[in-house]
Amino acid sequence: MHEISLVRNIFRTLEAEFEKDELEKLSQIDLKVGLLSNVEPILMQNAFEAVTQDEQRFQKAELQVNVVPIIIKCELCGDESEVKNYSFKCSNGHPTKNIIQGEELTIERVHFHE
Questions:
Q1: Which residues of 70-101 are buried (b: 16+ CB within 10 A; e: fewer)?
Q2: pTM for the whole thing?
Q3: Class in CATH terms, 2-112
């Protein structure tokens, strides 16, 4: 399950960006996960719970996974469309591979207790 290593990488990123006393006040991490990111939200939640059991300073934190749709932009007509049923065609029916959203896996926001 690659989600365990993803969660560990999230914590390493936070450790690099914040002081130890700040991390002790961590209450929630919001992730932005695209449908094409190869991450299953429920597996990410399970991995987060497993890792936080071993990481004392992160045990009070929660994970919020925000799934974002796949958005494409047509090279022919410039139309931006949401991909439905993995059919990569704009609303005018033109096939396109120009993905502008849906591959993300980013830390969107970090919340702290007062």
A1: bbbebeeeebebebeeeeeebeeeeebeeeeb
A2: 0.86
A3: alpha beta
